[in-house]
Automatic annotation (TrEMBL):
<dbReference type="InterPro" id="IPR001119">
    <property type="entry name" value="SLH_dom"/>
</dbReference>
<feature type="domain" description="SLH">
    <location>
        <begin position="747"/>
        <end position="810"/>
    </location>
</feature>
<feature type="domain" description="SLH">
    <location>
        <begin position="631"/>
        <end position="694"/>
    </location>
</feature>
<feature type="domain" description="SLH">
    <location>
        <begin position="695"/>
        <end position="746"/>
    </location>
</feature>
<feature type="region of interest" description="Disordered">
    <location>
        <begin position="579"/>
        <end position="607"/>
    </location>
</feature>
<dbReference type="Pfam" id="PF00395">
    <property type="entry name" value="SLH"/>
</dbReference>
<protein>
    <recommendedName>
        <fullName>SLH domain-containing protein</fullName>
    </recommendedName>
</protein>
<dbReference type="InterPro" id="IPR051465">
    <property type="entry name" value="Cell_Envelope_Struct_Comp"/>
</dbReference>
Amino acid sequence: MIRNGSKRLVSVFMALILVFSMFGSLVSADGGAPTPALTNVINYINFGPYAGKIVNYSDNTGTVDFYLPPGTNLGQTPYYINLGISDGSSISYNNGVKDWPVPGSYPWYVYNPNIFKVASGDGTYRNYTLKGYASELPTSNDLTSFSINGIVGKINNDTDSVEVTVPYGTDLTNIKPQFSHNGFYAEINGVAQKSNVDAVDFSSPVLYKIHSVSDASTHDYLVTVNVLPHMTLTLTTDKASYKPGEPVVVTVSASGTNNINENGVNRIKTTLEFNPTEFSVESYIDEDDEYTEGYYKPLVATKDAYMNTPYILKRSSPSEKYLILDLHSDIPFKDGPIYQVTLDSLDTLGSYVAPLSIYIGNVSAGGDYIQGSPIIVNTLVNVVAPSSEKQITQFSLLGNEGSINQDDSTVDVRVPFDTDLDDVASQFTVSAGASVKVGTIEQVSGTTPNNFTSSVTYTVYAEDKSYQDYLVSVSRAAVIPTPNSSKDLGTFSILNKSGIINQTAKTVDVLVPADADLTALASHFTTTGASVKVGDITQESDVTLNNFTHPVTYTVYAEDESYQDYKVTVNLAPPVVVTPPTSNPSPGPGSTTTVTPTPTPAPTAMPKPFYNEKVNIDVIKALLEKSKSAPAVTFKDVPANAPNAKAIELATKLGIIKGNTDGSFHANATITRAEFATMLVRALGLTSEGDSSFKDIKGHWASGTLATLKASGIINGYVDGTFKPNQTITRAEIVAMLSKVMHTTLVKNEKFNDVSGNWAEAEIAALSDMGIIKGSADGSFKPNANATRSESLVMILRMLNASLGDLLDIE
């Protein structure tokens, strides 16, 4: 018996337990977020000396577990139950049939599970299931299984994680997972969880806490739910339209197949269903493949293979309504074609739909298959009437295009004269769907050979089996001789005096009588070329007159339009000196008188003019006289103390240079061949004389200037007929041009250390002796260096100065 005082102490103690129990129900097991408030709860419960382990669930249920010492006979010793419930609630037992008596008055054998019902006046209630165990309190708290909709998750106790992969389209926001554990209970954010009852949002990873029975410890598991990616499937047909009865090949292609994890698990498996309501499946994989009901062989046997090429499918038997292919679980997909289905086209014209249903699922490491929802794809098949078109629309032979006459159904091809026509394949195109034969031989464009030495008949068959013959005729072009490239002078003579022709140096030297007038002579010549010109004047042997007081350049043109220059030099023979007889006294009888002739005085040699016959020294003198009254022109980048400042100022007065629009001269900039030619023409006062015949100056701003220099014999251009006006000019090229302006005596000397062997070596030596060019302090001339605007101008002025007796102040 418990005394009244003791009863009061027990009541106080039980009240404290109630307070602490209520406080504990408001916080999570790890002291974190508060647990949502629950109603109709048992706050504490004791089974004799043993306290019950209470768990409250959110679905108005709860559990109470009593752990008695090991070996306890659960059916022998009853204990009285004491408990406390929430305010305003009542409690009954035996599934709510009997009201709960006063505390401590109900004996209970723990082997017999019992249900207590805690209810409120508003009609709500919570049912508690009481169980007893004769064992030590369990110390483990592991999650032992976890699945979603029958899909088993992978539990990893090393990483305390769970991963589950579900089909594409699964709603992650309202999932009731199935799980088991060996702990006391599981909870999420302080809310106890019941397997297959409580819905959870798995849109992001969820932390499950498994509570221990023996203490307050928990085992936390992070549960991640993955959704299979959405593989996109497309269907294409091999043609836009089909003829009645023509097979239709449907290709199924996949994209977005990157759903294979790093260790090859969770691979995709598909099932293809084809409903042949209007079409039947025609083709198959292999005649030797055996199919049995409910089982389909894999298309690929190796685990390392991928479905990245199309495979032909067939039904397991002619009576099957659906074409189903269940792929081997170890075959993953790659983007690209995966299936090909060949259908029998209908005989009736029109457009028809071939429906295909494809199921996409996942195969786990254990072989479990998770199938997703079907994807329905409709393929439109157009059945049209066979075409009657039967034309050859293009025809060529060895790259030679043929001329097609559709009215006469003929093809004419012209090929080079030396073409071998015995065994040649033609290239052709015909109407869509048509085929071609020569006799009974099927023709393949670019492949099938024929003998075209005589006409060949091509028969074009339309889809509707009608046909049209084309007569193909091939003719050879006439022989076109290769233009002759010969361009030599064979013989050359003047005044019946044969010239000495040097074919290596391309020179001709002729010696004529001392009293010959060289200003207007006709030469006699023979040539292997097609024509001969001096400048732009075509030469006719024994007819065309030239002035041979200086060397004349004969240009021989070949049939292929190439040319060769010959430099013709005519020299006067030395005069014959006759000694007059000496006068003697009258001879005596019998004597003979010897008469000595009076010697003829040698003619005084006329000095050669400074310039060639095209340059008028009087014009240059007139330009000099005019410059004396011309205003001085200055440039913003040429100060008075700059090198060559005097020369630049004089050149502006003579009209040789004008400078740039911005008031600058750019003395140290390079100069092009056309720019130098323009300065030289202005300095010499030359005027235009027509077309230069250079093939790269048409439309060029300096074309007139270059024509003038070509006519004056100062420039010849390159052997390919070009002048290259925009190319920068070298110092050697300037020397070569200036040497052709003057009558120079070509010599060789060792004045410069870098011109030996240069193509303009003799011209450089001659102009150096005349003081027109100068070298560098190191003894070099740098013939191949690009000339600057100022140094090229100074060379021209030095030449003018030499011809005028050094009247100019230029340095």
